[in-house]
From TrEMBL:
Residues 102-145, 149-302 form the F5/8 type C domain. PROSITE patterns: FA58C_2, FA58C_3. InterPro entries: FA58C, Galactose-bd-like_sf. Gene3D superfamilies: Galactose-binding domain-like. This is F5/8 type C domain-containing protein. Transmembrane segments: none annotated.
Length: 307
């Protein structure tokens, strides 16, 4: 049995604190079909289990476990069987507030590090020992940033290169993904990214290169050309690779957040992200638009460890 504590993290990089100890903690069978599931995917760290996670997210669960020979087996026409978890003595209730248990030290002087994704935003941090060797003894350090995490990340300035910006399609060379920089005005080009086709499969993607970059704010504009084109609604997706993206959700509701876009070509519309996104890749996925899919964007936030 493999479990996931925080659905903002793929199962293949984080195994939850529930462990199979001979007593099943499974209850409340969840059934229903989902077209994303097609075939059998091993539910083991490092394997292609992400599709199971997506199906569970869609069903409204943030903590799940999979049984049946450690596989998630289903297709679009038959129900998948995914179980919720009962109470665990170490982990608390099997819900979004379940505890994450960290591996500690194996000797006195070797340093053990753990990255926190998503990061903790708080004034007080407490280490609560669970198991120990001899007496409870430890030395610790915390890493993070105390400066304001809201600087532009470099789309407009060019700090983010053309090669880091991509799109599902491009209308032509004058409307390439690299033209999506906020406030871009190019006398030789119309100024903005524009999709080749106007459907909801279109997206604009930014590769921030650094894993766990913190994004706290987004900004959008419409086309700078003569045509009245802009995006009126979009969703944000994020991930640490290009294989699996997560929808940004409304806090406490686990429902996809649809952002209000622009009402004209040049007015900048900002949205603060609370909680922030922590990821390498950010996608603007288009929902509704005026005239045609055209947009210019900027991201704001900070890179942990970078001044």
């Amino acid at each position: 049995m493999i479990s996931e504590v925080n659905m903002r993290r793929p199962l293949d990089i984080s195994v939850g604190c529930y462990k199979l100890d001979g007593t099943s903690r499974l209850t409340h069978e969840l059934t229903g079909s989902d077209p994303i599931l097609n075939g059998i995917y091993p539910a083991q760290p490092g394997s292609f289990i992400s599709k199971c996670a997506v199906a569970v997210i869609r069903a409204g669960y943030r903590l799940f476990a999979v049984e049946n020979n450690d596989t998630c087996s289903a297709n679009a026409s038959t129900p998948q069987k995914i179980e919720k978890l009962k109470e665990s003595k170490k982990c608390g209730l099997g819900d979004a507030n379940a505890f994450q248990e960290f591996d500690g030290n194996k000797d006195k002087n070797s340093v053990v590090y753990h990255d926190l994704n998503p990061p903790i935003i708080a004034r007080y941090i407490r280490f609560l020992p669970v198991e120990w060797k001899g007496e409870i003894s430890m030395r610790v350090e915390l890493y993070g940033c105390m400066k304001e995490c809201g600087r532009f990340l470099g789309i407009q300035s060019g700090e983010i290169s053309d090669g880091q910006i991509s799109a599902s399609s491009e209308r032509d060379s004058n409307h390439s993904a690299s033209q999506s920089r906020l406030h871009v005005i190019n006398p030789d080009r119309e100024g903005s990214w524009a999709a080749k086709t106007d459907d909801t499969d279109q997206w604009l993607q930014v590769d921030l290169v650094i894993l766990h970059t913190i994004v706290t704010r987004v900004a959008t504009q419409g086309s700078n050309g003569p045509k009245r084109e802009w995006v009126t609604k979009y969703i944000l997706q994020y991930g640490n690779d290009t294989e699996m993206f997560y929808n940004y959700t409304v806090p406490e509701q686990n429902t996809m957040k649809v952002f209000a876009g622009n009402i004209d070509q040049n007015t900048v519309v900002y949205h603060d992200l609370n909680p922030p996104i922590t990821a390498r890749y950010i996608r603007f996925k288009l929902v509704e638009w005026q005239g045609w899919i055209s947009m210019r964007v900027e991201l704001y936030g900070c890179v942990p460890g970078k001044a």
